[in-house]
Write a structure and sequence with these properties.
Largest sheet: none
Number of strands: 0
Order of helices and strands: HHHHHHHHHHHH
CATH topology of one domain: Serine Threonine Protein Phosphatase 5, Tetratricopeptide repeat
Strand content: under 5%
Radius of gyration: 19 Å
CATH superfamily of one domain: Tetratricopeptide repeat domain
CATH architecture of one domain: Alpha Horseshoe
CATH class of one domain: Mainly Alpha
Distance between the termini: 44 Å
């Protein structure tokens, strides 16, 4: 089945060589999959080079994802900094960079990215999510962090291409946990897992809380 998946990605690229998303999907498969089912770092790098020719900014984003899978966060960060330096006109690029900094727990760099994104589309509702997350990571201004997260939940649909409501609930849980509100934190973690049972970090945090309460 895995080989069939790769074949479909390859077919998509062959049908439309200018389809960056198809090339990105193929790249991610090639760098993540074991070689026995078609994984190939050489093929992944070839797709990145093709993406770079079509769109340099998306090329940096693709290379950043490649380095993350390769567990080379410093090299990934250099790519994401190149994205910010290019000052892209589409806010999605900034959110890709923001996700990297969230994953690296870098609150200061996340704030810089949010500020840059706000210059492009100051009314984008996703900014509230990242502002809330930034407050949780930094451990500062948590009252506003709660307001931002609540505003995001109340003003947005649960879209597959936006930060999920399950993840938002996870950040509520982390915020309450940091404030020592264990009961409220556990409730948020449980709600997050009801919405998305695959959230491993949320499950681990809930289990940790439940052990401490026994």
């Amino acid at each position: 089945m895995a080989k069939k998946v790769k074949k479909e990605f390859q077919n998509a690229v062959q049908l439309d060589p200018s389809n960056i998303q198809a090339r990105l999907d193929l790249m991610e498969y090639c760098v993540s999959a074991p070689w026995i089912v078609g994984g190939s770092k050489d093929e992944a790098r070839a797709q990145i080079e093709a993406i770079e020719k079509l769109d340099p900014i998306k090329g940096h984003l693709a290379r950043g994802k490649y380095y993350l899978v390769e567990k080379k966060p410093d090299q990934a960060e250099r790519e994401y900094r190149e994205v910010l330096a290019a000052k892209p006109k589409r806010i999605e690029a900034y959110f890709d960079v923001a996700e990297f900094y969230v994953g690296q727990n870098k609150a200061l760099e996340l704030q810089t990215t949010i500020d840059a994104a706000a210059q492009i589309a100051p009314n984008d509702p996703r900014l509230a999510y990242y502002r809330g997350v930034q407050r949780v990571l930094s451990g500062t201004d948590q009252a506003h962090g709660e307001e931002y997260l609540k505003g995001y939940l109340e003003s947005t649909p649960d879209r597959s291409d936006w930060p999920s409501h399950a993840l938002t609930r996870n950040w509520f849980g982390r915020l309450y946990q940091a404030e020592g509100k264990r009961t409220e934190a556990a409730e948020q973690y449980r709600t997050a897992l009801q919405l998305d049972p695959t959230l491993k970090d949320t499950k681990a945090r809930l289990e940790q809380l439940e052990k401490k309460s026994k």
